[in-house]
Write a structure and sequence with these properties.
There is one protein chain. By secondary structure, this protein is an alpha+beta fold. The protein folds into two domains: 37 residues; 59 residues, Transcriptional Co-activator pc4, Chain A. The chain is built from three helices and four strands; from the N terminus they run αββββαα. Strands 1-2-3-4 form a four-stranded antiparallel beta sheet, with helices on one face. A hairpin with a 2-residue loop joins strand 1 and strand 2. It is elongated and about 80 Å long. The chain starts with a helix and ends in a 6-residue tail after the last helix.
Length: 118
């Protein structure tokens, strides 16, 4: 019976030593790297620039992914790409209009009559 307890205590102490060494190694790695391994160091790759609700739990968002602009529709269970926007000036104009409080919706009656909209 003495052999059982002796080997059990040796096994538990060896396990504790191995776990302590692994924990110390993880601590040292996190301390000196400062970030998670493999994580991007600078800037966000994906940014939600603007969002609007169109119904219960349904939104349309303007998303920037690595400098490209996308319109995305989101529901509770789905994410649908609505289009890719290539005109950077138009996006900046839209974002400045939404932050200044000016209406963003164009006057469709002037367009249908062939007039220009500012």
């Amino acid at each position: 019976m003495i052999d059982f307890w002796d080997s059990f205590i040796r096994m538990v102490s060896a396990l504790a030593l191995v776990l302590a060494l692994i924990g110390g190694l993880v601590y040292v790695i996190r301390r000196f790297t400062g970030t998670r391994l493999g994580a991007p160091v600078s800037g966000q790759v994906v940014q939600v620039l603007a969002s609007g609700y169109i119904g219960p739990r349904k939104t349309i968002s303007l998303v920037s992914v690595a400098g490209e602009f996308f319109a995305v529709g989101m529901t509770q269970t789905e994410l649908v790409s609505l289009g890719h926007i290539t005109d950077r000036e138009r996006v900046e104009q839209f974002l400045s209009a939404t932050t200044s409080g000016r209406p963003v919706v164009r006057d469709r009656t002037a367009e249908s009559r062939g007039g220009h909209v500012d």
